[in-house]
Amino acid sequence: MSAVGAPLFDALGDPNRLRIIVRLCDLGPSSTSQVTTVIPVTRQAASKHLQLLESAGLVTSSRRGRERIWTVRTEPLARASDYLTQLDAAIGDGDHGTNMRRGFEAVLAAVDDLSARNLGDSLKGVGTTLVMKVGGASGPLVGEAQGAVDCAQDHLGVIGLFDEVAGAALQRVHRHLHVGVAC
Questions:
Q1: Cα-based distances in Å from 78 to 7, 42, 102
Q2: Could you give phi then psi for residue 68, rounded to 5 degrees?
Q3: Which of 48-62, 114-128, 148-162 has the lowest mean pLDDT?
Q4: In a domain, 135, yes or no
Q5: What CATH number is associated with residue 10?
């Protein structure tokens, strides 16, 4: 694994740290106390998670009075796409990172429109944008994952924890690839 990839993917591999990143992306810069509300751990454990994310370059912090304010950094994720492209070159056509970057840049370009919609329509808009821009085998896989999100939303009424939805998405992709079954 590359020097860029290992700490990044290790940091994102923990569900609590992933929840922290999602919270910071959704709500912007947040205090340690605010971040602690999204993970089921003590403030001390949350601080350790935040420090690990900071050492991986995924967040930065600054002081505001007695509180530390955390902000997500997207640059490491963009650099990781180069690593994903290298991995894809060994087993595919070497364009995965490039395609994913193109897809997420299109989502970012449409973020104002997407955020004005209700949750379900926003997720469908993100999924549709990714499927149309990513291309290759990634497009259908993202589409299958989006279908799983739609199913989860239909059954739960709202989106539950990210790992539940991600797990459902992976199961749906697996079923589609091996059995041909949708939702």
A1: 14, 31, 10
A2: -100, 130
A3: 148-162
A4: yes
A5: 1.10.10.10
